[in-house]
Each structure stands twice: as C-alpha cells, then as structure tokens.
Design brief:
Blueprint (H helix, E strand, L loop, with lengths): L1 H23 L8 E5 L4 H18 L2 E5 L5 H9 L5 E5 H8 L8 H16 L1 E3 L9 E6 H7 L4 H4 L8 E3 L1 H5 L4 H8 L8 E2 L5 H6 L5 E5 L4 H4 L2 E4 L11 E6 H6 L2 H7 L7 H12 L5 H11 L4
Parallel strand pairs: 1-2, 6-7, 6-8
Antiparallel strand pairs: 3-10, 4-10, 5-8, 5-9
C-alpha cells in the first residue's frame, strides 16, 4: 500500500511539474501569433500539426506549436491561462474528465452538453467534430480471440480471471475508465492491472507480458498487427469525437480563425485517422509531412 501511495504521489508531482513547464514555457502577452497545443501522444501531435498548417495557410499568421503537453488537465489549464489558444479534445473526455458529468452515449447530446458548458464555465468555444470518434479500444491478441471466439467485451468476462491486464495510468484513474468498465462487464483479472506507458501497450501485449490492454480505436498499429478490438456491446464508453476547443478571445483577435477551423469539420473519418496514425507510428514518417499530404489531398493547402 505504501509503495502504491508513493507511486501515485510521484505521478502527481510529475504532473504538477509538467504543468509548471507547460504554463511557464511561453509568455502571457501574445497579440500577433496563434498558439496550438496538443496532448502527449502522436495522434494529438498530428492533429495539432494539421490545425497549425491550415491556420498558417488561411490566416497568414505565425503559428507556434506547443505539443506534448501531457494530458487533458494540463491542456485545459494551459488553455484557461492563455498559454495556448486551442487544442483538439475528445468529447467523452471533456464530458467526464473536465466537466465530471455522468456518462452519456448519444454523440449529439454529448457535443451539445460539452459545447454549452465549456462556453458557460470557461468562456471556451467547442467547434464541430473533425469527423472521427476515437473511443477506448479493449484489445487482445488475434490468436486468443480466434481460439476463444471472442468478439465482444462480454465474451471476455468468463476468461478474465486467468488473464493479466495492462492499462495506461489515465485509464485506471479516469471516471470513464477501468473501474466502471469492470463493474459494467463483471471483469476480474488474475492480478491488479499493470500500469504501462501508452507507447508500450501493444508491445507488452504481443510479447505476452499481458493478455489485454486498453488502447484507442484509431491506433494505427491495430490494423497492422494481429490484434483484435473487442466490441463494447454494453455501450459503456461515451462518444469521443475529436473537436477543436478554442479560447474566445483568440477568435476575437483572429476572426479568420473560425472559418479556417470550420473548414476542417467532418474531414477525417475513423479509417483515415487510423491510416495517418500508422504512417507516423508504424512507418515513422514525419508528422509535418503526413499533415501536409492530408491537407493537400483535401484541397486545403
């Protein structure tokens, strides 16, 4: 118990340090540049780069990148403090982790709730979805799914007691994460789930260090490896549509931003996001090049 408490204290200290760095890394007074942030995984940096390049092309203003700012809390605080002007969030994460609202399954209702509450509480504008839904993916090895005929998370429950799970820290702690999933599906694993770095989840699974992980549905490596994403047949997870979240004063300072960001609405579907993620994570392509090709392909240069 002491070791677990010390570990959590260390993680909290790291988060506070990351927040201090994130908030202190750029000056408060900014009048002629747009600052785009992102969370700390490759899909987020790729979305941030797509947004940044598009804003540069449409507004003809300097755009500063502040990527890899840890998780949602850090990005939200950076946004509220005026250290960044926008970043891309996911509606289900905004609903549960930021607003602390109950889970909902209706995508339109979740977006409306997030949009209205972000404006009311924070003075932030939530724009329409970029077009894709990046939900949590409960993933097992393909060989195990075929052997045990696993297609849904419910199918997994009878075997869970013999299995080892590996999850990211945030999934273990957030209100739409492991605890609620375990209650909904009656999951009890052989041992306490291991806390894994997000970049090592699939490697640990394929190397048989664990038997099940929680990734993301648009992860590029899902289609490229022998992995199976189990269907959330009880609809536990809320929708996680990718939406730009923007400071109101930034939209006032740069009125051309709104039209530019609205041009991106609905432009990325789930499959396309997964393909771009694979180009970055699987083929190790430069994020700026992948973003540039995407914009060119959509006629948004």
């Amino acid at each position: 118990m002491m070791r677990g408490a010390a570990w959590r204290l260390g993680v909290f200290a790291c988060l506070i340090f990351a927040l201090a760095v994130a908030l202190g890394s750029c000056a408060a007074a900014r009048h002629d540049e747009i600052v785009v942030g992102s969370k700390n995984f490759s899909e987020q940096a790729l979305l941030g780069e797509i947004v940044a390049q598009h804003l540069e092309a449409r507004t003809h203003r300097a755009v500063t990148r502040r990527f890899y700012l840890a998780g949602s809390y850090i990005c939200q605080q950076a946004l509220l403090a005026g250290r960044i002007d926008l970043y891309v969030e996911y509606t289900g994460t905004a609903l549960t982790a930021i607003l602390h609202d109950p889970l909902q399954s209706d995508a339109a209702a979740v977006w409306q709730r997030v949009r209205s509450e972000y404006e009311r509480r924070f003075g932030l504008e939530v724009l329409p979805s970029l077009g894709f839904n990046n939900t949590f993916a409960i993933v097992v090895r393909g060989e195990d799914a075929r052997r045990l005929h696993l297609k849904t998370i419910s199918d997994l429950a009878p075997f869970a007691r013999e299995w080892r799970a590996g999850f990211g820290y945030e999934f273990m702690e957030r209100p739409d994460g492991f605890a609620g999933l375990a209650r909904t599906y009656g999951l009890a694993f052989r041992e306490t789930p291991r806390i894994l770095d997000l970049g090592l989840l699939y490697r640990a699974l394929l190397d048989k260090q664990v038997d099940i992980v929680a990734g993301n549905s648009t992860d590029g490596l899902l289609a490229a490896r022998d992995l199976t994403m189990l269907e959330d047949d009880k609809h536990y997870f809320p929708p996680y549509e990718a939406v730009p979240v923007v400071r109101g004063d930034a939209l006032a300072r740069f009125p051309e931003m709104r039209g530019a960001l609205l041009e991106l609405a609905g432009k990325i579907d789930d499959e396309e996001m997964g393909r771009m993620n694979y180009e970055v994570d699987g083929e190790h392509r430069d994020i700026a090049d992948v973003a540039r090709e995407f914009l060119r392909g959509k006629g948004l240069e």
